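Dear colleague,

Thank you for sharing your sequence with our group. We've completed the structure prediction you requested, and as agreed, I am returning the results in plain text so they can be pasted directly into your records. Please verify that the sequence below matches your submission; if there's any discrepancy, let me know and we will rerun it promptly.
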Amino acid sequence: MEAQSTQQQDLRQGLHAMWAAVATGWDEHADFVDRRSRALTDKLLDLAAPQPGERVLELACGPGGLGLAAAERVGEGGAVVLSDVASEMIAIAARRAADLGLDNVTTAVLDIEHIEQPDASYDVVLCREGLMFALDPGQAAREIRRVLRPGGRVALAVWGPRERNPWLGTVLDAVTAQTGAPVPPPGIPGPFALEDAAKLSALLEDAGLRGVTVSEVSVPLAVASFDEWWRRTTALAGPLAKMLELLPEDASRELEGRAREAVKPYETPDGLEFPGVTLVAAATAG
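Please find the predicted structure tokens below.
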């Protein structure tokens, strides 16, 4: 049992380091991510319905786009905490909040599986495409339930089925074909770890949340060129970014060739146009 615990801790620390390592890429593309996710952000905020004066926690916030949008809804009398496991991500989110003049926003380094906040301390918890990376998503869901006040709301999003998100699935397939190793490797949660709506719903219900709903939101991706898509996607794909940096130059060129061939079905006169879908879940604390 102790060995298993140590192994889990090592995995967790490795994942934290991975996200810290790609923070620069997320900083560079933060505005793009927010633009692409605007409809998703609006959906999450409509479901969670943060009200003036309420306290909101965003988990796995990255550059903080969702929480920054929530800060406008709770107003000066409310409070938003932007949190992530990587202090490097938190620094980016804090800077963006300051640039917007949002005095009701603070930041904290928090692990979604071990949220070091008091019980029943938030009216709303938000998480945009972060829960699927938890080593123990059930534990993360229970932690979300714990920090919510009675009647508090949670709204979160995870990527839907891999085959309906070729903007990312083709990258993972190309890397696997090139290296001969599955991406992500066994034991490491990947972007499609919670792609099943029934599984996601059961996860939240088992955590003690009530009135769970799961729906889909279309999140397409349109880019002007292959190079733009490749540069941006590999910079943001935490498990891949450092792996690709270590590939020899010839292997890297071959990998890009595989990817170019794979995305041909999505070519248009204006560039590349990919479909994309996320699963959006909402629930309340009893």
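Summary note from our side: Strands lie at 55-59, 79-84, 105-109, 122-128, 148-159, 209-218, 221-223, 267-268, 271-274, 277-285.

Kind regards,
the structure core
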